[in-house]
Model the fold of this input.
Amino acid sequence: MFKTLRDAFRIKEVRRRILYVVLMLVVIRLGSQIPVPGVNTDFFNSFLNNGTDAFSFLNAFTGGGFTNFSIFALSITPYITSSIIIQLLTIAIPKLEEMQRDGAEGRKKINKITRYLTVGLALFESLAMAIGFGNQLILEVNAVNIIVVAVSLTAGSAFLMWVGEQINDKGIGNGISMVLLINILSRVPQDMITLYQNFVAGRTIAKAALAWVIIAAIILALIFMVLVLNGAERRIPVQYSKKMVGRKLVGGQSSHIPLKVNTAGVIPIIFASSIMSLPGIIVTFTGKTPGGWGGKIINMFSSSNWFNPQDWLSSLGLILYVVLVIFFAYFYTSITFNPIEVADNMKKQGGFIPGIRPGKATVDYLNSVLKYVIFIGAAGLTIVAVIPFFFNGMFSAQVSFGGTSLIIIVSVILETMKQMESMMLVRNYKGFLND
Done:
C-alpha cells in the first residue's frame, strides 16, 4: 500500500487528485466542528454519555458531528438511505427499472431522483429532531429557530452529497465512501483514549503491556476476518461452445461467474442496526421510559446491554439482531443478483456450466450455490459485528469503533487503492503508446 502511494505521488495527475481528496476531507472535518445556531450543543453529548445508544450508530457515521450537533450532524446518511430506497424501488417500479437499463442517461435521471429524495429525507429528519427534542435541544423554541435548525442540517447533508460527487469527478475513490471513511477514522483516537483509560491507566507496566497486546491482537484478528470476507468468492466455471463466424471457428473459451461471499456488503448490518435502534428512538422522542417487562424488552433492543454480566436477559436481543442480519443478507442479494437473467445471458452467448443443462437446471444450480454462499457471508458479517459488542458488554469498553466501521474502512481503502493502481496503469499504457 505504501509503495503504491509513493509511486502515485510521482505522477502529477494522480498526485493532484489525491491532494484534492485530502482538501475535501479537511473541509468535512472543519464543518463537523461548526455548531447549528441557537441549539444546546452539550445536549446530545450528555444524552449519549448517559448510556443511551439509540443514536450512537448515527454518531459513529458522522465522526462526532452528531454529538456536537454541527451543521454536518446528519452526515450523508440521508443519501445512503435514499440510494437504498431507490435501488429497492427499481425492482417494484417498471419505470425506474427501465431508467436503470437505459445506460448513462438513465443513471443520470436516477441520480437526480436520489438527490431530491436525499434533500427530502434530510429535511424530514431535521424537523423531527427539532420538534421532537424541543426545548431540550433548542435554546428558545419558536418557528424561526426550528426552521433554522432544519435548514442548517438539510444544507449540511446536501453539501456533503455534493462533496462526494466532486470527489468522484476530480479525486480518487468513491466520494460517499470517502466521507464515511474520514468520519469513522476521526473517532479512532478518542476510542484509543477510552481503551487506555479503561484497561491501561493505573495498572503496572506488565499488565498495561499485556492489555495493549490483547487489544492489538483483537483488532488485527478483526481486520484479517474482514479482509478474508471482503475478498472471498465462489467461482462457478462457465464453458462457451465453439461456433462458426464466417470461415473461422471461434469460441470455446472457459470463464467463471464470481459470486462474492459478502455480496451485500455492510447493508445487512446497517438495516439490522437501524431496526434495532428504532424502539429506543421512539421511546426517546416520547420521553416516557416504560417499566416492568416493557422496559426489559426495550433494553433487549439496545446493543449496549448485550453481554452485560449483570443483565443477561437483555442479551436475548442479540438473537433478533443475528436473524435480521441473515434475513437482509438474503433479501438484498436476491434483488441485486438475478439467477434467471444470468442463466438467460449465458444461454444467448452459448455458455453453460459443465455438468449442468442450460435453462431451468442452471437457474436451480445457481440458486442452490447462492444460498450457501450468502449464509457463509452473513455468518462472517455477524461474527465481525458481534465481537465488539461482546467486549463492550463484558469489559465496558464503550468504543464506537465496531464491526460495521471496520468493514467500511477496509473496503474503502482497498477500493481506493485499486482505483489508484488502475489510474497508474492507464498512465503507463499512454506513455508506451506515445513513445
Strands lie at 233-240, 242-245, 248-251, 254-260, 351-352. The two ends are 29 Å apart (CA to CA).
